[in-house]
Amino acid sequence: MSDLTSPAPAPASPPPLPRARRGADWMFGGVYGTVLASGLLAALDQKGGPYTPYYDAAWVLVTAATAALAHGYSHHMATHPDGSAGHRWRLLGRAVRNEWPMIAATLPTVLLLVLAGLIGWDSYGVTAVGLGVNTALLFGWGAVVALRVGYRPAPALLIGAADATIGLVIIVANALIK
After folding, report:
1. Could you please report the per-residue DSSP string of 9-25?
2. What ranges in 45-151 are assigned the alpha helix state H?
3. Confidence band of 103 (pLDDT split at 50, 70, 90)
4. Is-contact 38 109, C-beta < 8 A?
5. What's the whole-model pTM score?
6. Are 169 and 135 in contact (CB under 8 A)?
7. Distances from the Cα of 149 to the Cαs of 21, 23, 75, 105, in angstroms?
8. Which single residue of 7, 13, 127, 170 could bond 45 by disulfide (Cβ 3.0 to 4.6 Å)?
9. Can you state the angle between helices 123-148 and 153-177, rounded to 10 degrees?
């Protein structure tokens, strides 16, 4: 009889939205975006073909935005919580917004390609400078974020060097493949 007279249980409130990512997660987006930009810069530079720096800049940006959307969506789906549809959409929006470091990390390459188009810089020089700058940025992403999350300076510099090694691998691969 108590089952008939007791009130229905209140619906569970959805879990709170996760906080925006910080620290080491910025490094993920920064490193991933910089590596993505480096790989595209190397791949889009074709010897003997026409040099199209604006086209290349657009493709770097479009690819970074698409990769960010795909990563945010896949991260959301892999951690898909229960809750209302509205709550899940808000979580998806947060997951996609958290990918901004990946897009931001490609902007130096995009700007370099636009500058190259404006001043008529040759593709070999742009690719060499771009890969060098991106390797330095990889070092910076690793070292600065490591310091920010609590590493001491010496280990932070080693983490930066490890990240820069990824850039060096791309430079070597570009030289060997072409």
Report:
1. PPPPPPPPPPPPP-THH
2. 53-78, 85-97, 100-119, 123-148
3. very high
4. yes
5. 0.80
6. no
7. 12, 6, 22, 19
8. 127
9. 160
